[in-house]
Structures are given as structure tokens and as C-alpha cells.
Design goal:
11 helices, alpha+beta, single chain, 4-stranded antiparallel sheet
């Protein structure tokens, strides 16, 4: 019997020559050995102690592997990535509130400031920052100072996949060789200092006054605040990995592929009496036994070709038989249609449930990515499209937290460069409306 296990040894699916076994229920949550630990011994490189990201210092590789192999996780993260970036940013100031108590914002008239926020470097920063936060739960924006240290010339994101933190959380250690940690030497590591996590903007002002910003770069670290890990926070989707849903979603297609490849799928049993062949191909007419066998084989092939294939669907098979003196049929064919015991629909329902659980882990309603199965089941529903619109609106509302998280380094950069302390970074959004409003979409800020 072939058995498909999850990485922690949980049996998921099994099939043999005459049976198929499917695991039911939700796997018990387990923390695999690659889950980032908080109390492991740091690696020592000269005067720096660097904390491993995962027991084998390869959690980003494991995370990328899961994302790459799971189409629903990859598309769910990409949907959240694009929906959160929205339609760009602009600088504004709060001008008070309306009669209902809602904040009112006006765009700042400084064209140079607004142009700088539309710059490709800022847009790339947001792309990379949201990517790393959603994939790895951590992000390392780099603020790049001018030669005289009085302004910040640019903002960049250091790829989190190649970053590790020092134990004192004062530096990030960048190296493209972390994924082969035993080959990484002190000369392969570049250290970039981090800003104070409690009040990074105040730290920027202190560093400028102390003359420590001239031609320098500093990391403005961003972490998934919902994770309580001390060093490396976990991304939201990791709960689906630890619960086993990611393994199930990946094993179902592998299982189906192997079943279709290895199963002997019989559709009909055709019973033909021996006497039929004696009359059709009398032995006395075929001195050569091999020739008679060949004729019978040709006849059987024609029978099979008549029964199978899409072009033969609903085709009639006509046979003749006689009745003897006793009233019993002779040479009567019997065609039995076999019931296919393998029900792929059950596996698709399991796969749909796993896909929904994965999307739930990242707070994405399955409706917005078309993950609601039409074949029924507990996750199937359709509300004429209103469920998609409502799910999108909920995602847009919840995106504020992630947007503000990524906006803070930009806000602090423009304030450091001379903008008013009241300057705020706002995201432009497009929301879906109903047809009775006279428009399919509406842009808001």
C-alpha cells in the first residue's frame, strides 16, 4: 500500500490495489523542527552573535518552498499584497472632522513632495516591504542618508530572506550565503545598524545631531506585531502550516495524480460464452491455433472499441442469442456496467477545505479569489457576487493596519527632510459598488 505522510509523520492519504484510505478531521497542531525557536544558541562571528532563523537557520527557504508549492497560498498572498498597496500614496494633513466625526484630510500642495512619493523608488519600497511582511513576518527598510547626513536620499528594502538579526538586535547581518550556513564566513557578512524600535524617528534626530548620519544607512525594522516571538516573528500563514492544512493541500493533487496513473479503471465486464467462439471461429476451420487466437483478439478489440471513448458514448451494443429446447438462452452475452468506487469529488472537497483554511489564516475571504467550490460542501456559497464585493470591502478596511505599518518609514523620511510634523501618508483605494449607484467602482482615500 502507498501511504502519503505529512512532514511530521501524520498519515494523510493511502491507496492500495483494492482499497483507499482517507484521513478525516483536522490534524493535531504540531510545531515542526523548522519552526523558529527563541532560545537557541547564537552563531558567533568575530564580535557579533547572530541568532539563527529557525533551528537550521533556513526558515526563509522553508517558507518560500511552501509558498511556491501551494498555488492557493501564493495567490492569496499576492492578492493581499496587491490589495494592500492599493493605488499608490500621497501626503496629506488632517483638517478636522465632519459632522459625523470622520477625519477630513487635504492633500499637501507641495508638488515636489507629492512627486517624490510617486517616485519609482518609493513604489518599489512598498512592493518589497509588503512582500517580506506577508511572506516572512519581518521587513528591513533601509534609510539611505546624503553625504552630509542632513537628509534621507532614498528608501530601500533589504531582502529579508538573506538577513539575520544579532542577539542584541542592534544590527542586521546580511549575507547571500546564509542558506548554506556552514559555508558562511565573517567576510561574507555585511552589518547594517538598526534604529531604535521604540521610537525610530527620535533616534534619527539623535543620530543627525551626533553627526552619525553622513553617508550612512540605517535599518528601520518592521515586524508582524501579532506574533509574540522575541527575535523572528512568524507570518500569519504559518498557522496553516503547523496545523497541517498546507501539507494536505499539496498532497491531494499528488495523490490524485498517482491514483490516475496507477489505477486499473474497469468500466464494463462483458461475459461471452465459450460456445459463441466455437460457432464464430470453429476450431476445424483454423488448423493453426495462433491464427484463431488472432481472430478472437481482433474481435475482442472491436468490442472494447465499441464500448469506450467519448465518440462511442451512449452507443448501443447489439448481440444475438438462441433459446434451446429447455427454454434457456444460449450464447447470450452479459454486459455489466461497473460502479466506479473511486470518488474524486471527495478529494476535491478535502482540497477545497484545506484551501479555505489556508486563506482564513491570512484573513482573505475565499470568495475574492474564486475559492468557493461549486460542487457543494461546507465552504460553498454564492450570493450573486455581493459576497465578493463585501469580502473585498472588508479586506480594504482591514488593510489599514498593514498600510500604516509600511507608511511610517516614509512619513518619518519626509518629516526628517523638512515636511511638517503633521504630514501623514495616505493610500488611495478603489472600492466596489453596486450598480444602483450608477458606477461599478468608486475611488476613495
Amino acid at each position: 500500500m502507498e501511504i502519503l505522510f505529512s512532514k511530521d509523520g501524520t498519515p494523510l492519504l493511502a491507496y492500495g490495489q483494492h482499497s483507499m484510505v482517507v484521513t478525516k478531521g483536522t490534524p493535531s497542531p504540531t510545531i515542526a523542527s523548522d519552526t523558529p525557536a527563541e532560545d537557541i544558541s547564537p552563531m558567533n562571528f568575530e564580535d557579533k552573535q547572530i541568532v539563527r532563523w529557525g533551528d537550521l537557520n533556513n526558515y526563509p527557504v522553508i517558507a518560500e518552498g511552501y509558498i511556491r508549492k501551494s498555488s492557493v497560498l501564493n495567490s492569496g498572498l499576492k492578492y493581499k499584497w496587491m490589495a494592500t498597496i492599493a493605488q499608490g500614496i500621497y501626503a496629506a494633513e488632517n483638517s478636522g472632522t465632519d459632522a459625523d466625526g470622520n477625519d477630513l484630510f487635504v492633500r499637501i500642495s507641495d508638488k515636489n513632495l507629492q512627486r517624490s512619493l510617486r517616485d519609482r523608488k518609493v513604489f518599489n519600497y512598498m512592493l518589497d516591504a509588503f512582500r517580506d511582511i506577508f511572506k516572512f513576518g519581518i521587513c528591513f527598510p533601509e534609510l539611505i542618508f546624503s553625504a552630509d547626513g542632513q537628509t534621507i536620499d532614498g528608501i530601500n528594502v533589504i531582502n529579508a530572506r538573506f538577513c539575520r538579526l544579532t542577539k542584541d538586535k542592534q544590527f542586521i547581518a546580511f549575507s547571500e550565503k546564509w542558506e548554506g550556513m556552514y559555508q558562511c564566513t565573517a567576510s561574507d557578512i555585511k552589518y547594517i545598524p538598526m534604529l531604535d524600535q521604540y521610537d525610530p524617528y527620535a533616534d534619527l534626530i539623535r543620530l543627525r545631531r551626533a553627526g552619525r548620519t553622513k553617508g550612512k544607512s540605517y535599518i528601520y525594522p518592521l515586524f508582524n506585531r501579532f506574533s509574540n516571538n522575541v527575535i523572528y516573528p512568524l507570518p500569519d500563514w504559518d498557522t496553516a502550516r503547523q496545523a497541517g492544512w498546507l501539507d494536505i493541500s499539496q498532497e491531494v493533487p499528488n495523490f490524485l495524480k498517482n491514483v490516475y496513473k496507477n489505477q486499473a479503471s474497469l468500466t464494463y465486464i462483458v461475459r461471452i460464452p465459450y460456445s459463441y467462439w466455437d460457432k464464430q471461429f470453429p476450431q476445424k476451420e483454423f488448423p493453426d491455433v495462433l491464427e484463431r487466437r488472432g481472430k478472437i483478439a481482433e474481435a475482442l478489440k472491436k468490442i472494447e472499441d465499441t464500448l469506450i471513448g467519448s465518440e462511442n458514448a451512449k452507443k448501443t451494443l447489439i448481440t444475438h442469442f438462441s433459446v434451446n429446447e429447455m427454454g434457456k438462452a444460449e450464447e447470450k452475452w452479459d454486459v455489466e456496467v461497473l460502479d466506479d468506487k473511486f470518488k474524486s469529488d471527495q478529494q476535491l472537497i478535502t482540497s477545497a477545505a484545506a484551501n479555505s483554511e489556508i486563506l482564513f489564516s491570512i484573513l482573505v475571504n475565499p470568495a475574492v479569489v474564486g475559492a468557493m467550490p461549486s460542487g457543494g460542501g461546507p465552504y460553498a456559497s454564492n450570493s450573486g457576487g455581493s459576497n465578493i464585493r463585501e469580502a473585498f470591502l472588508v479586506n480594504s478596511a482591514l488593510a489599514w493596519v498593514d498600510q500604516q505599518h509600511i507608511a511610517y518609514p516614509i512619513e518619518h523620511m519626509v518629516r526628517f527632510n523638512g515636511a511638517s510634523d503633521d504630514t501623514e501618508i495616505k493610500f488611495k483605494k478603489t472600492i466596489l459598488t453596486t450598480l444602483d449607484t450608477g458606477a461599478g467602482t468608486k475611488q476613495i482615500s
